[in-house]
Amino acid sequence: MDDLSPSLDTINDLWQEKFLSLVADYFSGQITKEKILSNIKEYNNSINDLYIETYQKELKKKEIGYDLKFNKIVNTIIISDSIGNARDTIFNSKPKKGFHLIGDKFTIENGHKVSSSLWLTDHTFKRIINDESKSFTYNLQFETEDRMNIDGWERIVLRRMASLLIISISIFLLVFGLLFYAIKSFITQKKIADIKTDFVNNITHELKTPLSTLSLATKMLKSDKNISVSENSKNIVNTIERQNVRLQKLIDQVLNNSLGYQEIKLNKETVNSKEYLDTIINDFQISLESKSIQIDKNIQIKQNINIDKFYFTTAILNILENSVKYGKENLKIIIKANYGKDFEVSISDNGIGIPKKELKFLFDKFYRVGNKEIHNVKGLGLGLYYTNQIVRAHHGTIEVISELNKGTTFTIKIPLQ
Ligand SMILES: Nc1ncnc2c1ncn2[C@@H]1O[C@H](COP(=O)(O)OP(=O)(O)OP(=O)(O)O)[C@@H](O)[C@H]1O
Ligand SMILES: [Mg+2]
């Protein structure tokens, strides 16, 4: 069956026609301005139910899934001359004070303005005045505003955004959880590191006292002329003494090389960088037993640097010693020095190299690379830790680049000022 209900356009035409004829009555002096307004309101009230019903039917066809109310508000009605200059204002209001023309009833505060329109028309009409048919024309400016209201729009928006909201909250919780976990792990790590340091410091201190007693006792034993000892016993006492000295050295090494950068008290002096590096490298070269190690230098600079010679030498030597310890046959060490923004020394070798994943732990206390090839190389894993602390005490940085089986480069940078 065909839908016989009128369309919204037809209803709009109806009240517009009524309105135009009311203005014509006013124009020809038959009614007042107030009468136009009250009559059009009355007329529209009479057709409003039909209008709303028709509107709801059209809305249903669109299947938007929620209740959408609509109304039209009048803001200005002005009669003007043919070029648009206002001649007579029938109604004029601030936008929010307009009157309800047609559609659903809801307050201005509850509606949202969706559009405004200006209807400009010139209307010609006839009236019989003194038995004479006369033709009049007037120009009209009719300004309206369309407003919409969605019942419970907050709930609708919330429902549509629920999944997005849940995902956002989950991501937020996840990030928060991860952050919490990271901070917790960091604190735990710090605690473990502190415990490790305290333990090492305490145990080494405690070991020193019995060791020095032992050392004194062996010395007394050796120098006591009243005890006649066999050659074998003499050898045993010597072995005890040697091992005792070795143990003391090891403990001293752990104690000294465990210092943090805040504990290192520098005694800086100005030194000529080239002379200084040349001396270290020459001394180091002399100390090497193997003659097959080649050391190349590239130190052109002569500028002065401000360092603690004692500590800085330890740092450089630790790296050089490592190059030899973890070198291969035909070992070649290259030392370069440069001045850029910082004083920069790099030491490269063509040794066994370090796996990429180990690099970030290299400067940790007691860290040694778990590589089978170097298991027979002795060490405490303190050399690079200490080197890094010395560099940090000088407000510098140390970096390492390495490729397995190709070699390693350490670069120390110290700011010039
Ligand atoms: N030039 C290098 N080539 C290859 N591996 C290296 C090199 N330098 C350091 N390493 C690796 O880094 C680890 C840490 O070096 P670090 O100098 O801190 O300790 P160490 O040499 O083992 O002991 P020590 O405390 O006696 O110096 C070493 O065990 C070694 O595995
Ligand atoms: Mg070392």
Automatic annotation (TrEMBL):
InterPro entries: BphY/WalK/GraS-like, HATPase_C_sf, HATPase_dom, His_kinase_dom, HisK_dim/P_dom, HisK_dim/P_sf, Sig_transdc_His_kin-like_C. PROSITE patterns: HIS_KIN. Its EC number is 2.7.13.3. It comes from the Bacteria. Pfam families: HATPase_c (PF02518), HisKA (PF00512). One of its GO terms (cellular component) is plasma membrane. The chain crosses the membrane at residues 164-183. GO terms for biological process: cellular response to phosphate starvation. GO terms for molecular function: phosphoprotein phosphatase activity; phosphorelay sensor kinase activity. It is an enzyme of class 2 (transferase). Residues 202-417 form the Histidine kinase domain. The keyword Phosphoprotein applies. The keyword 4Fe-4S does not apply. Keywords: Kinase, Membrane, Phosphoprotein, Transferase, Transmembrane, Transmembrane helix, Two-component regulatory system. It catalyses: ATP + protein L-histidine = ADP + protein N-phospho-L-histidine. This is histidine kinase. It comes from Polaribacter aquimarinus.
